[in-house]
Amino acid sequence: MTVKNLKQIWPTGQTKVSLAELTTFKIGGVAPFYLAVKDKQSLVEAVKKAQTTKISYVIFAGGSNVVFPGRPSTKLYIHYLTNPLAKDALTIGPTGQVYVEAGLSLASLIKKVISQGRAGLESLSGIPGTVGGAVVGNAGAYGQSISDHLLAVEIFDGQVIRWVDRVTCRFNYRDSIFKYKPWLVLGVKFKLTKGNTETLTKKSRQIIKIRQAKYKPGLACPGSYFKNPLVSKVSARSLKLVDPTKIIDGKIPAGYLLEVVGAKGLKQGQMAVVDFHGNLIMNLGGGTASDAKKLATRLKQKVQDRFGITLEEEVRFLP
């Protein structure tokens, strides 16, 4: 289908949009056709139109933790970011029940619930991206995950809009059913506990300060590149090679493993591991998805050779 045809279906669509500028990794070519949607209704309508007209599409949101190809396909790229001023994008009930639209930034959600004296999400402060993206990857930090206080998720399954409960979501470490099902995450319900706004604000600011020291402002990276291996999934033989003092909450920091094998400073094209953390790959300028994959493959092999542990990417490569 031609751009002209797409324009007739989506008059607000844009052509030749740089995807690199819409991600924290600054990787990606030019999308032939791009559509921005500001609410879940518009997202579902766009997907239904694409299905009816048999147009392939890619949906993305905050642009963190994702990598686009240097030469995007001829698909429709749908960018879902909820208008933070929208009246129904976020509601907080008197008993701590929260509803939030998936396209809202995680930062906006955390700031609002803290202002209302609701606890349970403050440790996620400073994590980029949207609420929906955080749910898909079961984002977490400092012993807290977004699924901890989650009640249910509103989805569009390709046919109807419906709710799925927490059990159905199959949350695990940095994982959920949403990585394996063609479902769109539209909204999320939480039940948060009471807390002190002043105390929660202080904790939030402290965590943001820690994260900013690690992820320096302007650093072109997707966040932690690899997941931290779970001790329960590592063989006894491999575990003997790991410094037990490095294990945190049943996980082996991928950064520690990578630093042991000399990952810091390694380069592939214009992609490099930063010199202050083994699990951060940054774009030096002009880096490509291919370079990122090649560098990641080298790093995984080094850890495999030294520890017998297979690292798994936390970032997702989009078509």
From TrEMBL:
<comment type="pathway">
    <text>Cell wall biogenesis; peptidoglycan biosynthesis.</text>
</comment>
<dbReference type="InterPro" id="IPR003170">
    <property type="entry name" value="MurB"/>
</dbReference>
<protein>
    <recommendedName>
        <fullName>UDP-N-acetylenolpyruvoylglucosamine reductase</fullName>
        <ecNumber>1.3.1.98</ecNumber>
    </recommendedName>
</protein>
<keyword id="KW-0560">Oxidoreductase</keyword>
<dbReference type="Pfam" id="PF01565">
    <property type="entry name" value="FAD_binding_4"/>
</dbReference>
<keyword id="KW-0133">Cell shape</keyword>
<feature type="active site">
    <location>
        <position position="174"/>
    </location>
</feature>
<dbReference type="InterPro" id="IPR006094">
    <property type="entry name" value="Oxid_FAD_bind_N"/>
</dbReference>
<dbReference type="GO" id="GO:0005829">
    <property type="term" value="C:cytosol"/>
</dbReference>
<dbReference type="GO" id="GO:0071555">
    <property type="term" value="P:cell wall organization"/>
</dbReference>
<dbReference type="GO" id="GO:0071949">
    <property type="term" value="F:FAD binding"/>
</dbReference>
<keyword id="KW-0274">FAD</keyword>
<keyword id="KW-0285">Flavoprotein</keyword>
<keyword id="KW-0521">NADP</keyword>
<feature type="active site">
    <location>
        <position position="314"/>
    </location>
</feature>
<dbReference type="InterPro" id="IPR036318">
    <property type="entry name" value="FAD-bd_PCMH-like_sf"/>
</dbReference>
<keyword id="KW-0963">Cytoplasm</keyword>
<keyword id="KW-0132">Cell division</keyword>
<feature type="active site" description="Proton donor">
    <location>
        <position position="224"/>
    </location>
</feature>
<dbReference type="GO" id="GO:0008360">
    <property type="term" value="P:regulation of cell shape"/>
</dbReference>
<dbReference type="Pfam" id="PF02873">
    <property type="entry name" value="MurB_C"/>
</dbReference>
<dbReference type="InterPro" id="IPR016167">
    <property type="entry name" value="FAD-bd_PCMH_sub1"/>
</dbReference>
<dbReference type="GO" id="GO:0009252">
    <property type="term" value="P:peptidoglycan biosynthetic process"/>
</dbReference>
<dbReference type="InterPro" id="IPR016169">
    <property type="entry name" value="FAD-bd_PCMH_sub2"/>
</dbReference>
<feature type="domain" description="FAD-binding PCMH-type">
    <location>
        <begin position="27"/>
        <end position="195"/>
    </location>
</feature>
<keyword id="KW-0131">Cell cycle</keyword>
<keyword id="KW-0961">Cell wall biogenesis/degradation</keyword>
<dbReference type="InterPro" id="IPR016166">
    <property type="entry name" value="FAD-bd_PCMH"/>
</dbReference>
<dbReference type="InterPro" id="IPR011601">
    <property type="entry name" value="MurB_C"/>
</dbReference>
<dbReference type="InterPro" id="IPR036635">
    <property type="entry name" value="MurB_C_sf"/>
</dbReference>
<comment type="function">
    <text>Cell wall formation.</text>
</comment>
<comment type="similarity">
    <text>Belongs to the MurB family.</text>
</comment>
<dbReference type="GO" id="GO:0051301">
    <property type="term" value="P:cell division"/>
</dbReference>
<dbReference type="GO" id="GO:0008762">
    <property type="term" value="F:UDP-N-acetylmuramate dehydrogenase activity"/>
</dbReference>
<keyword id="KW-0573">Peptidoglycan synthesis</keyword>
